[in-house]
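step=encode ok
step=design start
structure_in=
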């Protein structure tokens, strides 16, 4: 009996150059989630769909997260045709991806977003994906670098964008800012963001908009921060 591949190609029209292109996806039946880190980084058995979330047009160099590939306006198209396409060397991103190939694709998406002057929340999302890819490689230095970029842009998004629509709302943004701050060792800043989220949850007008699971995780992380601070204090007292 023939084994069905976990990967398949799908077609889509590039909204910038109007070419019909192919991109590779992972069959939903093949996706097996093992665990998820507290910053939402997923770990899979077998093929990892995160590696295929960056879709690149081989003809003009337009790149985007798969969920927003068709969401581009006239101004953004003009920016890409001015800044990306003239320097683009045609190449394909279909087929099985290594982490290195995925990193190349996601960094092209990041360059596209910067060229388009995209929302900070979109830039942050791609920076976070790149950090995850480096985590899969166990490259802690590069992971930290892109976590910092993600944190910076999520904070800018929180203060400047309307996050009232979609799954990534202001409360998830508060959580991810707190969690990335914690991972980067900024414990006081992390505590402030987590406490802010807990305060929102205590407000009856906002409580129904916040996931109880998110709050449970937040409380666990607040305790972890308290424990880390206590251990740090004890170590400093012992060495004094």
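sequence_out=
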């Amino acid at each position: 009996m023939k084994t069905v591949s976990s990967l398949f190609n799908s077609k889509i029209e590039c909204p910038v150059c109007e070419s019909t292109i192919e991109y590779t996806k992972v069959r939903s039946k093949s996706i097996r989630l093992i665990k998820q880190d507290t910053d939402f980084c997923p770990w899979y058995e077998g093929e990892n769909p995160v590696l295929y979330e960056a879709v690149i047009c081989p003809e003009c160099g337009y790149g985007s997260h798969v969920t927003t590939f068709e969401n581009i306006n006239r101004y953004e198209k003009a920016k890409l045709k001015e800044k990306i396409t003239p320097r683009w060397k045609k190449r394909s991103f279909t087929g099985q991806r290594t982490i290195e190939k995925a990193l190349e694709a996601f960094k092209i998406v990041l360059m596209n977003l910067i060229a388009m002057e995209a929302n900070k929340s979109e830039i942050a999302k791609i920076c976070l994906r790149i950090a995850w890819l480096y985590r899969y490689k166990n490259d802690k230095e590069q992971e930290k670098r892109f976590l910092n970029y993600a944190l910076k842009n999520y904070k800018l998004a929180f203060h400047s964008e309307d996050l009232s629509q979609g799954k990534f709302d202001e409360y998830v943004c508060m959580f991810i800012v707190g969690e990335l701050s914690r991972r980067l060792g900024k414990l006081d800043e992390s505590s402030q963001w987590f406490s802010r989220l807990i305060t929102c949850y205590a407000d009856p007008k906002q409580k129904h908009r916040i996931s109880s699971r998110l709050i449970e995780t937040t409380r666990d992380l607040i305790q972890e921060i308290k424990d880390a601070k206590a251990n740090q204090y004890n170590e400093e007292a012992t060495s004094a």
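step=design ok
step=annotate ok -> The first helix runs from residue 74 to 83.
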